[in-house]
Amino acid sequence: MSNQSDIAVVGLAVMGANLALNLADSGNRVTVYNRTASVTDEFMTGEAGEKDMVPAHTLEEMVASLASPRVILLMVKAGPPVDAVLDDLVPLLDPGDVVIDGGNSLYTDTARRYQTLKQAGIRFVGAGVSGGEEGARHGPSIMPGGDPEAWPVVREILQGIAAKAPDGAPCCEWIGEGGAGHFVKMVHNGIEYGDMQVIAEAYDLMRRGLGMAPAEIGEVFARWDQGRLRSYLVEITADILSATENGKPMIDGILDAAGQKGTGKWTVVASMEAGEPTTLVAEAVYARIVSSDPDRRRRAAGVFDTPVGDLSGVSEGDIETALYASKIISYAQGFRLMKTASDENGWALDMGALASIWRAGCIIRAVFLEDITAAYEAEPDLPDLTEAAFFASALTDAEPAWRKVVAAAALAGIPSPAYSSALAYFDGMRSARLPADLIQAQRDYFGAHTFERVDRPRGEFFHHDWIPG
Fold first, then answer.
1. CA 190 to chain centre
2. If DSSP codes are grouped into helix, strand and coil, which group holds residue 429?
3. pLDDT (tens digit per residue) in 412-425
4. φ, ψ at 73 (rounded to 5°)
5. Peptide bond into 152 cis (omega under 30)
6. Are 268 and 282 in contact (CB under 8 A)?
7. Residue 339 and residue 382: Cα distance in Å, rounded?
8. Could you tell me the pTM of the whole model?
9. Which helix (H) or strand (E) is 145 found in, with range?
10. With left for phi above 0 and alpha for psi between -120 and 50, is residue 52 left, alpha or beta?
11. Are strands 30-33 and 53-56 parallel, antiparallel or unpaired?
């Protein structure tokens, strides 16, 4: 029996350490390496010391410990640190070896690295990994893309550690070439931003608008977690709102300033470049930005009266409906963005497969994704999720309560940017005519940018002499 390792993990922070343990539990001999040698030594004194693991204190030692073709998983901070590790690592490798970047790298960086390493004969994979600490340890959702020749080498390893969906399928499938895997992970994270925002808005509406205590709201979320909103994020929200500290709600001790690491912003920027609106994700990103300066908000509260009234005529059920409808819009926007990017980059993304691998392990795992998977299985070329019969019917049924919640929130002075932007998108996308005709006329008036006509074929452009005389 060979004493060489099947895979090496570089970077032993929370995600890297837990993935290493997961890999060992799945029957792999694992070499672990961290730039700071003491981190490696400390890791080996814990649970890792009881598993089939090999500590390495130099990259040379790590590379020498691996069976050929070598498989190396990088779990280091995205950006320049990944390039720095690759600069040191690649000269030690042989053609055919595989390097996997399992961090949250920007997909354009992954595409660049793929092309660079391909010239050196190294098979590079950019794999999005979702699930946080728990997922990494016990089964995440994994979205690998990059060099297709690497997939046969790493498939068994990655699918072996991935979460299993309710039907037993591993939540890991090959996404596509180049930066496809990290693009899909980026959109996943953007959708995650949206999910968290629509949940937060429901909490705010119930707390300030309905006057409910955190524990009461937690009970509502626990009930919702038994129905169509059943998901990891709704489940943990119920737990969070029921938690106490010194007899008081734990939530009340947390500063209302949300952080972010950039993947939501990347999603919005990518959507603008692709010409596909992800308006709900954008509002979620901006809501975090607004929250991030509580001092500014408190100053404004001292200048402007902030009349927060009750949500007259709005029930918990209405809020649940508004949340659900807004969630449909957010996912529809995300899947449109992935489809457009797939067409532009030749990735041939399978939308149903993407929904399928998000059903377990990842942060946005939810029963809702079973419905999305079914919609794409029934119609693989579905142009827009909202056009599937199931979701079209759900939006139609939700519309009265959705409008009531958005209107009541505006009258009560409670911001609901995700719900209102989703509703505005819903109204805009089904409008046979929008006021963009006036915008185009204005552009032609001041800049001679031309316009198309309703009585002529698309693609023909005209200019009008708007100034009389």
1. 4
2. helix
3. 999 999 999 999 99
4. -105, 120
5. no
6. yes
7. 10
8. 0.94
9. strand 141-146
10. beta
11. parallel
98 Cβ neighbours under 8 A, 6+ residues apart = 69, 70, 71, 72, 122, 123, 124, 125, 147, 150, 153, 154
Q: Give residue-wise pLDDT tens across range 304-331.
A: 987 788 898 999 999 999 999 999 999 9
Quote the DSSP letter at residue 15. Answer: H
Q: CA-CA distances (angstroms) from residue 386 to 4, 77, 282, 331, 372?
A: 51, 36, 19, 9, 10
DSSP 155-196: HHHHHHHS-B-TTS-BSB---EETTHHHHHHHHHHHHHHHHH
3-state helix, strand, coil in the chain (%, to 5): 55, 10, 30
Torsion sign, CA atoms 64, 66, 68, 69: negative
- Phi, psi dihedrals of residue 150, rounded to the nearest 5°: -80, -25
For 66, the 3-state DSSP assignment is strand
Catalytic residues: 185, 192
Return the structure tokens found at 324.
């659900």
Residue pair 372/344 in contact by the 8 Å Cβ criterion: no
